[in-house]
Amino acid sequence: MTSDDTIEIEDLQKRLASKFEMKDLGNLTYFLRVEVTRYKHDLFLSQMKHVMDLLEDTGMFDCKPNETPIVENHKLEVYVDHVPTNKERYHRLVERLNYLSLTRPDIAYAVSVSSQFIHSPSEDHMVTVMRILSYLKSAHRRSLLFKINEHLDPKSYTGTYYAITNRRYILGYFTFIGGNLVMWHSKKQNVVSRSSVESEYREIVQGVCEILWLRWLLAEIGFRSNAATKLHCDSQSTFEIANNPV
C-alpha cells in the first residue's frame, strides 16, 4: 500500500465518521464466520472454515466430490406421493447454506431451489442439498476477490431461466462496482409470466432498482458517478420495450 492509498483511506474514514458513528477496530481478519485475507492490493473474502465445519457436521467430509452444485435441467417439485425427510434437519442445512452464499455466488441458484421446499421437504430434496455439500467438497477454497480499480462505476447483468415444472421463471442478476462483484440474486417469480420477454422485463426493472439504490449509496458516502450505469440483458425484444416510451 502506497502513501497515496493511505491518505485516501484516511480521508474516506473521516468522511464516513462525519456521517455515521464509527470506531476504528484495525485491520479486519475474521467477522461472523467470514475470513478476510489481504494480499498486496487484493482483498479475499471466504468462508472456508464454515464450509469445513458444515461438511464435518453432516458427515460429508470424506464424500465423493461433485463438479456442479445441482443437476442440470432438474425437475424438483412437491409431489403428493413423495417420501418425506427430516424437516428440522433439512431446514437447518438450508439455513447454513443460505448464509454460506454470502461469499459463494456459485451456489446461489442451487440454494434458492432448495429453499423453495422447506415447508415440505422430501428425500429427493435432501439429495439435492447433499449434492451442494459434495460440490463444496471439491470447491471449498473458493472466495470472493476484490481488486483496486480506477473507477467505482456500477454494472449489472440480468437473465431468466424457465422452470418447466411450474411455468414460473427463475430471475437472476449480479452487479459489479468498480469491476468487483458485490450483489447477486436468484429467485422464482411469484406470478406466471405470459412470455419470456415479460419475465426478462421484470428482471430488468429489478436490476434498475438495485442500480439506483447502489448509486444513491455511493453518492451518500462521497463517490458520486456522473457516468451512465450499464445494464446488460440478452433479450433484444426486452430492450426494445424498455427503450420505447410509448
Automatic annotation (TrEMBL):
Q: Which domain of life is it from?
A: Eukaryota
- InterPro entries documented for this protein: RVT_2 (IPR013103)
Q: Where is the Reverse transcriptase Ty1/copia-type domain?
A: 2-71
Record Pfam families: RVT_2 (PF07727)
- Protein name, please? Uncharacterized mitochondrial protein AtMg00810-like
What is the originating organism of this protein? Prunus mume (Japanese apricot)
- What would be the name of the gene that encodes this protein? LOC107880297
